[in-house]
Amino acid sequence: MKKQALIFVFLLGFALLNYPILLLYNIPVSIGGIPASFFFIFLWLLILTGLTFIAVKKFNKSSDAE
Amino acid sequence: MSKILIVDDEPNILLSLDFLFKKEGYEVYIGRNGEEALALVQEHEPNLVLLDIMMPLVDGYEVCAFIKKEYPKIKVVFLTAKGKAKDREKGLSLGADLYLTKPFSTKEIVSKVKELVN
Amino acid sequence: MLSRDWIIAATFCYLGLLIALAWYTEREAAKGKSRSAHPWVYALSLAVYCTAWTYFGSVGRASTNGLEFLTIYIGPCLIAPLWWIVLRKTIRISKALKITSIADFISSRYGKSAHLGILVSIFCILGILPYISIQIKGIENSLEVLNLTEFSQSGTDFWNDTAFYVALGLAGFTIFFGTRNLDATLRHEGLVMAVTFESVFKLLAFLAIGIFITFFLFDGFGDLFTQASAAGLDRLFVLNGDAVSDWFWLGLLSMIAVMFLPRQFHMAVIENTSEKHIDTAMWLFPLYLILINVFVLPIALAGLLLFPSGTVNPDTFLLAIPMSKNAHGLALLGYLGGFAAATSMIIVSTISLSTMLSNNLIMPILVSNRRLQDQLRTQLPQILVWTRRSIILGIILLAYFYFRKLGNNATLVSTGLISFVAVAQLAPSLLGGIYWKSGSKLGAILGLWTGILLWFFTLILPILVQNGYWNPSVLSEGLFGISWLKPTSLFGMQGMSSITHSFFFSVFFNTLIYAGVSLLANRTSREHNQALIFVDIFKLGDNPDRSTIWRGQATQEALQNLLETFLGKKKAQKAMEKFFQSKGIPANERRWADPELVNYSQRLLSGHIGSASARIMIESIVNEEEISMDEVMGIVRETQELKNLNLELKAKSKALQKATENLQEANEALKISDMLKDEFISTVTHEMKTPITSIRAFSEILQDESIREEDKKRFLQIIIDETDRMTRLIDQVLDLERFDSGRQKLNFERVFLSEILESSLSSMAQVFSEKNIRLIPSLKLPESPLFLDEDRIKQVILNLLSNAAKFAKSEVRLSAYESEDQVIVEVVDDGPGIPEEDQPFVFDKFFQAKNQTSKKPIGSGLGLAISRKIAEYHGGRLGLESKKGKTRFWMEIPLETSIKVPQNQPIHE
Hints:
The structure holds 3 protein chains of 3 kinds.
Chain A: H1 2-16, H2 21-25, E1 30-31, E2 34-35, H3 36-62
Antiparallel strand pairs in A: 1-2
Helix pairs in contact in A: 1-3
Chain B: E1 3-7, H1 11-23, E2 27-31, H2 34-44, E3 48-51, H3 60-70, E4 75-80, H4 85-93, E5 98-101, H5 106-117
Parallel strand pairs in B: 1-2, 1-3, 3-4, 4-5
Chain C: H1 4-30, H2 39-45, H3 52-65, H4 71-79, H5 86-97, H6 102-109, H7 114-145, H8 162-178, H9 189-217, H10 220-230, H11 241-260, H12 262-270, H13 277-293, H14 296-306, H15 317-324, H16 328-368, H17 370-376, H18 380-405, H19 412-424, H20 426-435, H21 441-466, H22 473-477, E1 485-486, E2 489-490, H23 498-520, H24 525-535, H25 556-567, H26 569-583, H27 595-609, H28 611-621, H29 629-703, H30 709-741, E3 749-751, H31 753-771, E4 774-780, E5 786-788, H32 790-807, E6 811-819, E7 822-829, H33 863-873, E8 877-883, E9 886-894
Parallel strand pairs in C: 4-6
Antiparallel strand pairs in C: 1-2, 3-5, 6-7, 7-9, 8-9
Helix pairs in contact in C: 1-9, 2-9, 2-13, 3-14, 3-16, 4-11, 4-13, 6-7, 6-16, 7-16, 7-18, 7-19, 7-21, 8-16, 8-18, 9-16, 10-14, 11-12, 11-19, 11-23, 12-16, 14-15, 15-16, 16-18, 16-28, 19-23, 20-23, 21-23, 25-26, 25-27, 27-28, 29-30, 30-33, 31-32, 32-33
């Protein structure tokens, strides 16, 4: 399960931070004064890191299985 | 006069014994199997029974056991081809007075019977 | 103003702190307290990924290309979750096989190939050297910014250059903490702690400057971005078209680099103490990257806003901005942070490269020469250590001079990316190596060569042209004037950046050749073994020694001597003891080492001198016979044959068991037959006694002369009859015995069955008429004669008829007819029938029905037993069916003339 969860995080990140989804926020728009691309890239990275953290903690607690 | 019952399923043996004991002056009855023997014992209460063992329907052991239970005074002599010690012991333990094996000596059998009857 | 003395003092203070920390950690480790075996230490030590390039180069890149610089960090963040799968497997393999570097890893995977080890090592040196040089450049640049500009491009001699002495200092530090132990798989505790400290330090320094610029010089992110936007810098907020294409490829490239750069491989794999630490690294490392990158764009924008004239190199904004605002302390901190980033990279890279070179290049050369090996044998460990030390020094000096000769024109980032692409060439054979069993040595070598050549052609050649070392026509005309062989646009490919272009084509063809050749190539058994170990590492358990097929002989003594040379007497003995203890057998018992011990020793040695050299050393004392794939197949076949033999044996023993059972059964049967025989004999004697008794009795009676004449006659007749009876009985017993033992001979002749039947009928007619029983024949027989023993068949029929006569009430039918391929003769009477429970025994010897009453039927009790035997001797059967009022005996005799006469039939049926 841990494996699957981690692969899921990888695929999610790969989709969010690559063409074509990238084009959705790679636009000259600012959010609270911060450029959309800058904002979203770091947001996604934080979310992905958070998800990895959760996956590791959760599945390590439930079992140490591969 | 003493009464003798002879029981055997071999006609020729019956014939020879019948002849022998009649000649010696006994009142002889003949039984060809165990069933007939039982009937004749009850009917005539002989002094002595000469008994074969291997007979159809009711065998000699059973006849002997019956006689010794119901008529303890009747002497029983087994006269059989079964010569094994085991058979002899079984016969005597049932109360038989004598256990003789075939083929027999006519003189011997006559004298033994005479002894027992008197 | 920062004085030169201050800066130098701070630098050496920092180095001193580093040394103290490393020293302390090593001391503690020697006491058994491992300070660096902590998941956070592991995760943070991986941040050696962030070098001077990150520290200075990213800002420079961001000032021209905006967010594009981030791809190099997004890739590692994305791939991090997969480390649990890929990195863990790599670690497991490396620990099991005592791998010392990435070159060792690849060499080991492809049959411990010295060739591959050398190729990868040299290529890594070439690929990483520029990368190390830009670290020195980073330090140099920062010193320049801090107004220590004694180095002005060309004028100064290197001995007057501060950077040169810094480089020497670094070499000293690395040598001291990196080559203390000969065993390259042993962790460098102090070093890891130092690197971790540097990671934390550089992050804090970067964050401090970032916060200072963003929140003190400007009013937060919003303000900074708004000002930049107003200044027309908003083009940097959006990735342009080309960048989007690069985005993907650079992301992919950095995913590979973060694992396979020699220093990353060293920190992540070789220095790993527990696979569990990956758990922490998977989120902490990305978090680190996010933090260190969040201020990159703001700093770049601030630099562009503050120095609009373009006179300041954007790569130095990080220091230039605090300097310009007179925040000297902060600038010094930034300088030290950059110094930390550069030094950690240099230290780890040089250690990994020196191990790689000494174990995969120098050692194999030294030990593969038998004479050299014999001469140097005892000094090899010393040679090894000093080789590593000189390599470290050599690399750092080479990097320094590379930077002075070539590295000035290129930016930090572009030089770094060239190294990334170089390292990416290792990916196909490495990833293929751990997930694809068929990946072969030849495929790896050819794939690597392809990748290296393309890398050189597409990235290095243009640099050489730039520096005037190569004819520029190759760029415009293509190689040999072939237009689709232009280094920057292979096959006329346009629209890719040079890095992406090179990365794509080199790795593409590398992979293609690797996979293609692997599919076609034959592999040696050793390659096969290693492939199995690598790919199936999780299935192997903890003993890779046992899984290899190895053939050869080595004395235990020679092995021990070899180990003692490299490990020292004490350690070698300990290792041996450990081995025998784990095997549960006493040491020194056998003269010849078993394969497992040889593999174990080789593995131990691998940790010191690399797998290829270890193999060569072991081979020098082992009379190993090279095993080809065919031979392995042979071994497998032999095993198979053994297995088959085993199966056969099992079958045999099963058969034997069955035979025993049969024998037992036969014995039982014999016992029964013995019993039967006893019974038979006692029955026979009993049956014989009966006529004898009569004969004797009448004989004695006849001795008496007074008997009447008619009685005499009668008695004599009885005696004669009984004698006949006895004769008959004896005849029949003998008959039966002959039939039973199979000694009975029949006189087969061609006879008409009907004749036999008719003569039987006539001889029985008398008996039937006496008993007033009707005898009804019904004969429908073939014209042709049968092959029979006339007398015996007649005996059977007479027996059946006389039996029927004994029991019949009023009639007996004798029928004979043909049915299919046999003749059936049957005798049916209307007597009382034979009770069902008696039917199976009717054909037994001396069976006489119980219900025969007073009159005993004439007969010995052997008639039917003999009759059945006769029928069987004719190949037929005798049987009966009976119910009240109808008893049918039948005999089947086959029409077939070929009659098999049973031989030696057992007595029992």
